[in-house]
Write a structure and sequence with these properties.
alpha/beta; 34% helix
């Protein structure tokens, strides 16, 4: 359909505008909250991220995970929040109130754990008001402050590298 093409183009333009206006602010604030954006088609185990939060000494109530599914019909019982392309409007507008609430939350760290080149996932990362954004290897390097080059199936490698870099950046609480 013609309108889908126009909608996608307007969202791409809006994404490029967001990325060009973004200013990187890497302070030494400690990590107390964690947000995760992932693609349900690639990863479907929320327990991996609960273990990561425990490893980073983040309380379970300060962890928020959202999943995106490119197939709108696919919903999993394990996910509280699973989104699809229908939750996005023109010019980067978000139609879903819960998704908007997630994006307005100022997480200390946001993890973009996906490799698929989907416009909606990139928009979620760019629209997030998180202070520090971490991702795995993606083609657009402007989205994240820290990129950990690892395969999406090697979660333990990602977890250890993230811990190492957050320690170097003085973002982990020493207890």
């Amino acid at each position: 359909m013609v309108f889908k093409g126009f909608k996608k183009r307007s969202n791409k333009r809006y994404l490029n505008k967001l990325i060009s206006q973004r200013s990187v602010n890497v302070g030494d604030t400690k990590v107390k909250s964690l947000g995760v954006i992932l693609c349900f088609d690639e990863v479907d185990d929320i327990e991996l991220f609960r273990g990561l939060a425990a490893h980073l000494r983040i309380r379970p109530n300060k962890l928020k995970v959202i999943a995106f599914s490119s197939n709108g019909k696919e919903k999993a019982n394990a996910w509280d929040l699973c989104f699809n392309p229908n939750d996005f409007g023109w010019n980067g507008t978000i139609k879903n109130v819960e998704l908007k609430s997630f994006l307005d939350t100022e997480f200390d760290v946001l993890i973009s754990y996906y490799t698929e080149e989907l416009l909606e996932l990139k928009l979620l990362t760019a629209l997030s008001k998180s202070q520090f954004k971490v991702g795995i290897l993606q083609t657009d390097k402007r989205l994240n402050d820290l990129i950990i080059k690892t395969d999406i199936t090697e979660f333990n490698v990602f977890k250890e590298e993230l811990y190492k870099y957050l320690t170097i950046l003085n973002k982990i609480k020493n207890e």
